[in-house]
Design goal:
Shape: globular
Bound molecules: NADP nicotinamide-adenine-dinucleotide phosphate
Number of helices: 9
Oligomer: single chain
Order of helices and strands: EHEHEHEHEHEHHEHH
Number of domains: 1
Strand content: 5-15%
Distance between the termini: 45 Å
Helix content: 40-55%
């Protein structure tokens, strides 16, 4: 048993990570902006899973928000043994003609916060000789759907680089590359998830469990479901000219 700090715990995949870890008896630190939702979830987790739950409301788009979470990761008392960098969002816009504030918000949450929090975690966990980090990337990291793909590709390559640094330290890091999931992700950016066939969606509960199992095995990259594993293989070996032609911004689903 340990203590997991999960960013973006208030909904979707983050919430599923929280339930999966609580079911195993782990204590939790829940991070997101919406403190009411976090407190409600924390109460349910305490009652149903009988685990300790801290609520740490923070906006990862702000320096202060990221700093407060980094400080919690570095705390000596009630140490965090598993960090899950999960918070993220769609851009909901094209880069050309898009709002630059929204672009900066996305890079702050999905790149800057992941960098700072992973830095805090490895520098706290390595001296202890143990610890685990899971970074949520996306299958989109293999495509070219605007800056979202770029951010998720950064998460994947960053994770691989840190994994190499961590060899022999007792600390593991894993990037999970989910495909489409039914969460609040699409509705937040007003994308109609109904435009995709149902078989293309994965269950976020399954994704959370696959990611946790892979992290425990020390696997650096994990792609849930056979269908998306095949998609990953195809995108890895396809000529980039083809990827640019067929897996560009039009795949993002904005109508
Ligand atoms: N859904 C998909 O199809 C899909 C596919 C591949 C990868 N992913 C990735 O999976 C991860 C989880 O997304 P999801 O699908 O579960 O979407 P979601 O249901 O919209 O959850 C996103 C979470 O991120 C939090 N968040 C957003 N902005 C934040 C900020 N500025 N500061 C702190 N927390 C913030 C949200 O909480 P608050 O609003 O309370 O802050 C929420 O808890 C993301 O990294 C996403 O990119 C999703």
């Amino acid at each position: 048993m340990g203590r997991a700090l999960i960013t973006g715990a208030s909904s979707g995949l983050g919430r599923e990570f929280a339930w999966a870890l609580a079911a195993e008896g782990n204590d939790l630190v829940l991070v997101a902006r919406d403190s009411d939702r976090l407190n409600k979830l924390a109460d349910e987790l305490r009652q149903k899973a009988n685990v300790g739950v801290e609520v740490l409301p923070a906006d990862l788009n702000s320096v202060d928000g990221v700093d407060s979470v980094a400080k919690r990761i570095q705390a000596v008392n009630q140490p965090v043994t598993l960090l899950i960098n999960n918070a993220g969002m769609g851009l909901g816009q094209d880069f050309v003609g898009g709002d630059i504030t929204r672009e900066l918000n996305a890079i702050n949450v999905m790149v800057n916060a992941v960098l700072v929090l992973t830095h805090a975690a490895v520098n706290t966990m390595v001296p202890r000789g143990r610890g685990t980090i899971i970074n949520v990337s996306s299958i989109t990291s293999m495509t070219v759907q605007g800056t979202y793909s770029a951010h998720k590709a950064w998460v994947k390559v960053f994770t691989e680089g840190v994994a190499t640094d961590l060899e022999g330290t007792g600390v593991n890091i894993t990037a999970v590359l989910p495909g489409l999931m039914h969460t609040e992700f699409h509705q937040r950016v007003k994308v109609d998830a109904g435009q995709w066939q149902e078989f293309m969606f994965m269950d976020p509960q399954y994704v959370a469990n696959v990611a946790l199992d892979a992290a425990r095995r020390g696997q650096v990259i994990v792609v849930p479901t056979a269908m998306y594993k095949a998609t990953y293989g195809l995108l890895k070996f396809a000529p980039r000219t083809l990827v640019r032609r067929f897996a560009g911004p039009k795949m993002s689903g904005r109508l």
